[in-house]
Amino acid sequence: xxxxxWPTLSAHAASLASCEFGLxxxxxxxxxxxxxxxxxxxxxxxxxxxxxxxxxxxxxxxxLLEVFLAQLRGQANRAVVPLFGRTTPRxxxxxxxAVNEVGSPQMQSATTLVCDGFTAGAxxxxxxxxxxxxxxxxxxxxxxxxxxxxxxLTISFEPPTRAEAANNTLLISTGCTCLMMAADPHAxxxxxxxGFTEFAFDFVEVFx
Length: 208
What we know:
The protein is mainly β. The chain folds into 2 domains: 3-84 and 178-205, no CATH class; 95-174, Elongation Factor Tu (Ef-tu), domain 3, CATH 2.40.30. The protein has one helix at residues 59-72, and strands at 3-5, 18-31, 38-57, 78-82, 95-99, 112-118, 123-124, 129-132, 137-141, 145-146, 153-158, 171-172, 177-182, 190-192, 196-205. The longest helix has 14 residues, at 59-72. It is globular.
């Protein structure tokens, strides 16, 4: 199994014509046939999803995308998917932020991380995405925060962690990625008059 990096396209083709990025929570719902009472159980394993496509692209860009899809080999390999439209955070994230496990051990299923390494006064803004480690779990900040004079900051986020975050793991807020696989093993694309090619795709996060 290999990780395949999303291709770098020419400037006029780099943006998706459409993009739906979402988070699919792992929940179970039971409805009583007698009373109609609803019970909901939340389970671990929330996954990011991506659906989108490119407007007709010229042959050079089409070749890169065709090779990318072919190299995925259906669902055998993994796609390193960039966070389209969210390549930079709203906050400054100044400094070298990292997990401070010594200060507060970061357990599995956590929705906060105690961090250090920020520049004093650095900010995290609600809606900022970040990876826990390069290419690690992708999270979205759920509250604004400002680092104290020592560069410490506790970040609130979703979805919960799947594994304990090791001490000194760096937090990546620019150029975030998500490890995904194709939702359908059948890769295909559409030829259009004039030598153009259209692409549509669906991906779902996989856990390393």
